[in-house]
Amino acid sequence: MQTTLFQVLTEETPNIDEIRIMLEFNNYIIPSSYTNENIIPNIIDNVFAGEWILTIPEGIINIKLFKGKTSSVDYMLFSGDSELYNGYAGDALCILESTKTSDNVSRNTAVYQRISKFMTYNKMYPESKAIQIMFWIDSNWSETLTQTAILGFRMMDTLNIKLFATIGSQLCDIKDKYQIMPFTTTDSLIQCKNNIPQKKGNQSIRLRRDDSIFYISLKLDKGDGQYAGVISHDPNVGFLSAVLNCIEKIEPGSIYIIENHGIQQKYFDKSPSSKLWYSLNKMNIVFNECTIKTLPELPNRYFDLENEMTEKLCTILCDMISTTRTIFSNHGGCALTCIKGTNCEESVGRKMPRPDIVFEDECKKEILIIEGKLEKELTKGVKQLTEEHLKGFVEILNKNYPSHTIKKGLCITIDNIDNISKYENLEYPVLFALDMNGRFIDLR
């Protein structure tokens, strides 16, 4: 019997590149010839165990999905004998956050919004020795960085987060490529931020200090509708988490006064539950003209394993065992992919209605659109496959595959696979089903 060397937990579709870099930091090399095809669903006698196996020469790596109890990283690496059912992540060997968004696509999304996830982990497990990695996968980078990215990368480096990207087929150390240096003084951090030119019409972030008191001027609400007066400005929330943790590391025990934040007192009166507070736990923070009454305690566990068969497990399994090419996927809670055309990739707007998986059969000249749903939500799934609902998405497919026929079907998570026949007359056929015991059927 092969030894379980490591266990990987992820909220994403398991991917070889993220697993490879975590193992390399733990002195195990996955052969360069390995691809996602080597990540195999654990299926015995047509029963899916809800996990995946990656076999390397020294043994096996067991891969499971998890659900974060807070703002969690995308991947965690544990030793093969770690107990994972208690939701404790303090003994992780490595934690990794992954994105395809690079600096030249979105500076805030690529940098600031990621940092708070590492900070929350550090607040929950201050004694952890986990290697922390920010990973940009299949990303495009310019030869020079924006000032915003430089500031963000320097803060990450200050906080001991390693910075890596795959550019083309090559793994790149971002710190080496762009000569990123950590901040050693708070004054240099303040100067670096304040030197970034203000944009006309924007309320720019500004920093200043008075001895051990630091003033941070930044807008934390979106300013209108349901988001007015409450913490809702995600990029600035990420920045605030990063900058306060950086200052705290350089000058522990400082006082932080937040100005021009836009948050109303009634937000604090309702005992706010924003995940921002986890990443700033036990810091001495004052919101100008507001009184913070109570703040949430840190969660007592970092994650729950996906122990039941879910829509997400079902669609990922459907995707992984397909014999045709996947050209788009949007598995629940996972990263949104681009649509793969014949010679290009095309982005899908985040607000555009979209299915869960799209397959392309080059031989049959067919596109298969799949919508995943729990059994109790089948009616909703049928509506989401209608031409009216998917009009914009289908237009992109037709543009990229003008000679293909488009077909549609459902991928369902069902209580008992033996009852699948009662769904034979749906407007769109059930093409894949997984039941609560892991039994599945593939009718494609």
Topology:
Elements: E1 4-10, H1 16-24, E2 39-44, E3 47-56, E4 59-68, E5 75-79, E6 94-99, H2 107-124, E7 131-136, H3 147-158, E8 161-167, E9 170-173, H4 174-177, H5 186-194, E10 206-210, E11 213-217, H6 234-250, E12 255-259, H7 265-269, H8 276-279, E13 284-287, E14 303-305, H9 311-320, E15 325-329, E16 339-340, E17 345-346, E18 357-361, E19 366-374, H10 378-384, H11 391-400, E20 405-414, E21 430-435, E22 440-442
Parallel strand pairs: 1-4, 6-7, 7-8, 11-12, 12-13, 19-20, 20-21
Antiparallel strand pairs: 1-5, 2-3, 3-4, 4-14, 5-6, 8-9, 10-11, 15-18, 16-17, 18-19, 21-22
Helix pairs in contact: 2-3, 2-6, 3-6
Q: Nutshell version of this structure?
A:
This protein is α/β, with parallel strands linked by helices.
3D architecture notes:
- With 444 residues, the chain is α/β, with parallel strands linked by helices.
- It has three domains: 4-173, Rossmann fold (3-Layer(aba) Sandwich); 186-287, no CATH class; 308-442, no CATH class.
- The chain is 24% helix and 28% strand.
- It has eleven helices and 22 strands.
- It has helices spanning 16-24, 107-124, 147-158, 174-177, 186-194, 234-250, 265-269, 276-279, 311-320, 378-384, 391-400, and strands at residues 4-10, 39-44, 47-56, 59-68, 75-79, 94-99, 131-136, 161-167, 170-173, 206-210, 213-217, 255-259, 284-287, 303-305, 325-329, 339-340, 345-346, 357-361, 366-374, 405-414, 430-435, 440-442.
- Strands 1, 2, 3, 4, 5, 6, 7, 8, 9 and 14 form a ten-stranded mixed sheet that branches. Strands 15-18-19-20-21-22 form a six-stranded mixed sheet.
- A hairpin with a 2-residue loop joins strand 2 and strand 3.
- Helix 2 runs parallel beside helix 3 (147-158), helix 2 crosses helix 6 (234-250) and helix 3 (147-158) packs across helix 6.
- The chain is globular.
- It starts with a strand and ends with a strand.
- The mean pLDDT is 91.
